[in-house]
Amino acid sequence: MTDEPDTSSSLLVDTFGRQQTYLRISVTDRCNFRCKYCMPEEGIDLAEREEVLSYEEITRLSRVFAAHGVNKIRLTGGEPTIRKGIVGLIKSLSQIDGIDSVALTTNGSTLEKQAAEFKAAGLCALNVSLDTLHKDRFAEVTGRDEFDRVMRGIDAALEAGIAPVKVNVVAMKGFNDDEFADFVAFTKDRPIHVRFIEFMPFAGNQWSQDRIVPFETMLTSIREKFDLQAQDRAHDHVSKDYVVPGHAGKVGFITSMTEDFCSGCSRIRLTALGELKTCLFFQPEMSLRDAMRGGASDEELAKLISDTVLKKRAGHPDLQRIVQVSRTSMVAIGG
Ligand code: SF4
Q1: How far is the CA of 264 from the centre of ligand 1 (A)?
Q2: What does pLDDT average to over the chain?
Q3: 316 C-alpha to center of ligand 1: Å?
Q4: Pocket residue to mutate for ligand 1, from 279, 308, 318, most atoms within 8 A of Cβ
Q5: Disulfide: which of 4, 49, 140, 153 matches 108 by Cβ 3.0-4.6 Å?
Q6: Under DSSP, is residue 297 helix (H, G, I), strand (E, B) or coil?
């Protein structure tokens, strides 16, 4: 009897024909930053250590997902890099049969020290959250005076040879909507991929529809200064990508509020508590942690996962209703 999961059963395809191939795993609900669009001002009730999935549990579940067609894993948080042993986890996930890519989303605060280790452990892709190129605004939105360290971290990731390095910019009216051209200029000599993300509602993040900077508005304002040329886009690709002739990097837009991409959604999420979420905005559907700790076999876990995928909705509700369903803070989901 081998301990490899039964690979004969089906791939994770929902009732809309979308195959789930991309697993986003939150490894912690803790963070060393206090970004206003992610962490509620009053903070959150942090989970007890034993409530959080161990690395062994994350690796076992990842093997089960991989046996059913998941080929990409992204580690998120909170801030994943502040959890001890994260390099070891990247290594063990990179060695799972069927996993082609292990990626990480980070606030960049540890990259200067850890980028080379991440690369050596098998990290394939990196997203760094950076919502402004102004030091004072950085401190305002993150609650931390760490702008220089994050900028050095981005360069350290490039030097370590991690590619792609993406920079996630949450576009918020009245905060950074005068910096779009500066961020595009930031891609001139750096092979980074800047993505502007429409502001999304999560518990406690002071979201309102009038704070969204719509995709079309961003595009128009950038085109006043740059020749943005659209790139072809795969159906399950999240970002609408553009290049600027002569720039080493590129620009993208994640438009979930004004032009959603739910029809090609291939993503499924695991929270730090081992809850399975088929959509970013809806509440978790079930606890794989409890099933696993309750003695479920890999086959039983796989059945629970595929049954849950069959409950996946077509997409997120419209902007009037989305606030009612999006009742968890971003820091507890990991984006
Ligand atoms: S909103 Fe939900 S269904 Fe739509 S793309 Fe995001 S995770 Fe997928």
Answers
A1: 9
A2: 95
A3: 6
A4: 279
A5: 153
A6: coil
Residue located nearest, by CA, to atom 5 of ligand 1:
262
Q: Where are the domains of the chain?
A: 22-333
Token pair for residue 40? Answer: 């509620």
Over residues 300-317, mean pLDDT = 96
- pLDDT of res. 9: 54
Ligand 1: centre distance to CA 313 (Å): 9
- Coil vs helix vs strand at 222: helix
Sheet with 267-270: strands ordered across: 229-230, 240-243, 250-254, 192-198, 165-171, 125-129, 101-106, 72-76, 22-26, 267-270, 275-277, 286-287
Matching CATH number, 22-333, of 3.40.1190.20, 3.20.20.70, 1.50.10.100, 1.20.1250.20? 3.20.20.70
- Taking the whole predicted model, whether its pTM rises above 0.85 is answered as yes
Q: Which residues line ligand 1 (CB under 6 A)?
A: 256, 260-262, 265, 267, 279-281, 315-316
Residue nearest to atom 2 of ligand 1 (CA): 279
d(Cα 91, Cα 121) in Å, to the nearest integer?
Answer: 5
How many whole angstroms separate alpha carbon 123 and alpha carbon 74? 10
